[in-house]
């Protein structure tokens, strides 16, 4: 009988152990958004090949609307500068970058192809991970963009 009660108790605990969602207070959500904002430098991208010698950056800023779920996005893609918007879900660590527009300066073909692929990957981002001074963006296709925070 004691063994049955112990097994019943164990079966009630095991499903709870698989739960990964962490509820956050408004202060924690606000702090996480502040941690996302700033200038980030691309360090590695698993499908983009060799990074250009020019700095490839991503700048995230609070949107002028004051909405915690929106960020403005800008940066340098190797040759051209770009701007766009991001919608974020801080509790689920989801991000969608959209409406990217860029300048139209020409450059060497390999660099232009890198830039096109980089911007396409930014628009395919679905989740992010923030780890101290490192930001990892993951795309719908399973690609990863790794950034490090640039000094202020």
Structure description:
- This protein is α+β, with helices and mostly antiparallel strands.
- It has a single domain (22-149), classed as Beta Barrel (Lipocalin), CATH 2.40.128.270.
- Helix content is 28%, strand content 38%.
- The chain is built from 3 helices and 8 strands; from the N terminus they run ααβββββαβββ.
- An 8-stranded antiparallel beta sheet has the order 5-4-3-2-1-8-7-6.
- A hairpin with a 4-residue loop joins strand 4 (81-89) and strand 5 (94-102).
- The longest helix is centred in the N-terminal third of the chain and has 16 residues, at 2-17.
- The radius of gyration is 20 Å and the shape is globular.
CATH topology: Lipocalin
Helix percent band: 25-40%
End-to-end distance, in Å? 64 Å
What's the tally of helices? 3
> What would you report as the Rg, rounded to the nearest angstrom?
20 Å
Order of helices and strands: HHEEEEEHEEE
The percentage of residues in β strands lies in 35-45%
Q: Ranges with pLDDT <50 over ≥5 residues? A: 1-23
Residue-averaged pLDDT: 82
Tell me the overall shape.
globular
- Biggest sheet strand order reads 5-4-3-2-1-8-7-6
Question: Into how many domains do the coordinates divide?
Answer: 1
Quaternary assembly? single chain
| DSSP, total strands | 8
